[in-house]
Design brief:
Blueprint: H1 3-6, H2 36-41, H3 96-102, E1 118-122, E2 128-130, E3 140-142, E4 145-146, H4 159-162, E5 174-178, H5 181-192, E6 207-210, H6 220-224, H7 226-234, E7 241-246, H8 255-264, E8 266-272, H9 278-284, H10 291-303, E9 308-311, H11 325-336, E10 341-342, H12 350-363, H13 368-375, H14 383-400, H15 416-439
Parallel strand pairs: 1-5, 3-6, 6-7, 7-8, 8-9, 9-10
Antiparallel strand pairs: 2-3, 4-5
């Protein structure tokens, strides 16, 4: 067993709360005749599933469903011949990120476990990726890896492997390590980032969300330290707006650099805890650290003076939504020092549903019929259920004195633009003086 699952969690007990048994009616009565357009149109923002409802089709922001009968013909592109690929893609000509992935060399690893994934070195041109959407609270994303070893059954980010012409089931089996992340990020921030975001009317810096489509502290980070390299670059800057979301207690390794970032920029850290039930967590998130380890990490981060909150996303209907379960997560988070709490209902893109439904049939067969009814027409649960969940989360926050999520309160400003303007003014003044002396004015 990996040490990430077996290390004891010191000095933090989980308070056990009374949890009512799962009711016979697992789901509230909701109309099932809503069209996908109606459901999506009334969508409550899914906090914590960053990028899952973005408008722009990029590898870090899930695409809107688009049907096409005319795949491009790139006769000179390389061909992927992998048994893991769907049969209709096995001989497809590859372009873009798919072409890079197909040519990516294996990454050296000291891990010898038969259960470890394959690692590849992915040459990329950029680390800071734009996410143009009014429906998510950030402008930029950083994902140090493609794929995630935690293998969460519900993971919406499986679609990102489809950009590489890989099946979503390969998401936890083929991990792509982004090459030269530090130098690339330094260039990206210097040339692409703005300290005056349009969304804030130019009063705040653009927000960078780390971990929107992969966990930045999955086991690969121990060897490749891509996340650490990115944080080291961000720590050199001032006035940034940054958030990190993870299920891993490995984040405490980087407390030193996180403190440096927080001293100069706005930094918020989210620890995802979907349930306190260890056996259920192992079923849903097979290779992620135990919930108690995440709570211990949350406590350590808080004690280090960092702003930390709990994400209980996704809330999985009939599985993690029992009366008392969500409340227990919030209570444990509060006890460990969490400042905020949020949760959003399960979102099932087709690539996710393909993996989730076999799991559901094997472990929760009594839920299959209702899930098929709910998610047949849309990736979203019916609006009444999502509305009731939002109301429940609001009550929980009030009960435990936890904030809702805006990121962290903005307290840093970026002097660089003002400095630049002052320097320009000085240059103009000098030129004026020089001109006056030459002309005698």
């Amino acid at each position: 067993m990996s040490p990430v699952h077996s290390i004891a969690a010191p000095d933090l007990s989980i308070r056990h709360h009374h949890v009512s048994p799962t009711p016979e009616t697992l789901f509230p009565e909701c109309p099932d005749d809503l069209s996908p357009q109606q459901v999506a149109g009334s969508l409550v923002p899914l906090a914590g599933q960053h990028g899952s409802n973005a408008d722009r089709a990029t590898p870090d922001c899930p695409p809107a469903p688009v049907a096409t009968d005319r795949p491009p013909n790139h006769s000179s592109s390389p061909v992927r011949n992998s048994a893991a690929d769907p049969s209709n893609r096995a001989h497809a000509r590859l372009v873009g990120i798919a072409r890079l992935a197909a040519a990516s060399p294996p990454a050296e690893t000291t891990r010898r476990s038969a259960e470890r994934p394959e690692y590849f070195v992915l040459p990329v041109k950029s680390i800071l990726n734009r996410c143009d959407s009014e429906r998510v609270p950030f402008e930029w994303t950083i994902n140090p890896f493609r794929g995630c070893e935690f293998a969460c059954k519900y993971c919406y980010a499986r679609y990102t492997h489809e950009y590489m012409e890989l099946d979503g089931g390969e998401f936890e089996k083929k991990i792509y390590v982004k090459k030269d992340a530090g130098p690339l990020l330094a260039w990206d921030v210097a040339h692409k980032y703005s300290y005056q975001s349009e969304a804030s009317g130019g009063t705040q810096a653009e927000h960078i969300a780390i971990g929107t489509a992969t966990d930045p502290y999955q086991p690969a980070e121990r060897e490749y330290r891509v996340t650490r390299a990115c944080l080291e670059e961000l720590a050199k800057r001032e006035g940034l707006s940054i958030s990190i979301i993870t299920k891993s207690d490995q984040i405490v390794r980087d407390i030193d650099v996180l403190q440096r970032i927080a001293d100069r920029s706005d930094l918020a850290i989210d620890i995802t805890i979907t349930t306190l039930r260890t056996r259920l967590a192992r079923m849903l998130e097979p290779r992620a650290p135990r919930p108690d380890l995440r709570l211990t990490a949350l406590k350590q981060l808080t004690e280090a003076g960092l702003a930390v909150g709990v994400s209980a996303s996704p809330l999985i209907p009939g599985i993690t939504d029992r009366e008392g379960d969500l409340e227990a997560v919030a209570a444990a988070g509060k006890e460990a020092g969490a400042q905020w709490f949020f949760s959003g209902v399960l979102f099932l893109m087709p690539s996710s549903a393909k993996q989730f439904f076999p799991f559901l049939r094997a472990k929760f067969p009594r839920l299959v019929e209702q899930y098929e009814k709910w998610f047949a027409k849309s990736g979203y649960a019916p609006e009444p259920y999502r509305r009731k969940t939002a109301e429940r989360v609001a009550r929980i926050r009030q009960m435990y004195g936890l904030r809702a999520r805006p990121w962290v309160e903005k307290k840093h400003t970026m002097p660089c633009r003002q400095m630049s303007l002052e320097w320009d003014g000085a240059v103009v003044a000098k030129d004026t003086e020089r001109t006056a002396s030459l002309t005698g004015e």
